[in-house]
Specification:
Rossmann fold, binds S-adenosylmethionine, 7 strands, seven-stranded mixed beta sheet, about 230 residues, alpha/beta
């Protein structure tokens, strides 16, 4: 596989989740007409699904290469927090077969997306969980591997995970604190938590092990990708 097949309505969600996917032309229109018009109209009618599917695949593959070497063959239970459509997990699934994937996401699209830092106010979202499920199955994940949870409505899974991944979501748009108690419950000392943060130094006080594995200057916020394990308290 070197591209993703997108179910109807998925292209819009993907460009909202990965704004770097929009063409320079759409970028101009977004500037001219504003964010509301962009997210509720332009993204509905002006996207080419096969181009978005291909570009989304390339971006997710690039992201995978930043984390691949930290995934071990023994890792079986993966949790994705704010994984969007789940393109990254599909690529993990291509390389590491028969793993179990848990996704915690939100199930709505904000009217006006700002891509800001909300701190403890966490009301921006751009996903639809039934479209996410259909995207994952269409691109090769088995139904039995997929467990999707709505952050606002469901009881979250309480098993111990081996790997937890949150790109451009936890501590990038909203405060890590919102998930702190939950993560302490579902982590073993060896659980690897990989996320993008705008304040990496903060986490030396939270985890025994913290490693910066990537730095991004060109994303919406300047951020560092860190790999952490073993909560100190
Ligand atoms: C910028 S997108 C990144 C999506 C994906 N990780 C990627 O790299 O393409 C941020 C995602 O976080 C989700 N989100 C926002 N608040 C969340 C929360 N409290 N828990 C889980 N996901 C959340 C949004 O719906 C959105 O899909």
């Amino acid at each position: 596989m070197n591209n993703f097949i997108l179910p109807r309505k998925a292209p819009r969600l993907i460009v909202l989740q990965r704004i770097e996917l929009i063409s320079p032309f759409l970028k101009k229109l977004r500037k001219m007409f504003g964010r509301y018009f962009f997210s509720s109209f332009l993204t509905k009618y002006f996207l080419n699904p096969s181009i978005i599917g291909k570009k989304y695949y390339e971006i997710m593959l690039k992201e995978f290469l930043t984390i691949e070497k930290f995934i071990d063959v023994e890792d079986k239970f993966f949790l994705s927090i704010g994984g969007g459509m789940g393109g990254l997990e599909l690529i993990v699934n291509q390389s590491f077969h028969n793993r179990n994937y848990y996704f915690i996401e939100k199930n709505y699209i904000s009217k006006k997306i700002k891509y800001g830092w909300g701190g403890k106010v966490n009301d921006e979202a751009y996903n639809d969980l039934s479209i996410q499920k259909s995207f994952l199955v269409t691109n090769g994940m088995q139904n039995s591997q997929i467990n999707i949870f709505d952050y606002d409505k469901d009881s979250l899974p309480t098993i111990k995970f081996d790997v937890i991944i949150s790109l451009l979501s936890l501590d990038y748009h909203y405060d890590f604190e919102l998930y702190m108690d939950y993560l302490k419950k579902v982590c073993k000392p060896s659980t690897k938590i990989i996320f993008d943060t705008i304040r990496a130094d903060n986490f030396f006080k939270v985890f025994k092990n913290v490693e910066v594995i990537n730095t991004s200057e060109n994303t919406v916020h300047k951020s560092k990708r860190i790999l952490c394990s073993h909560f100190l308290n």
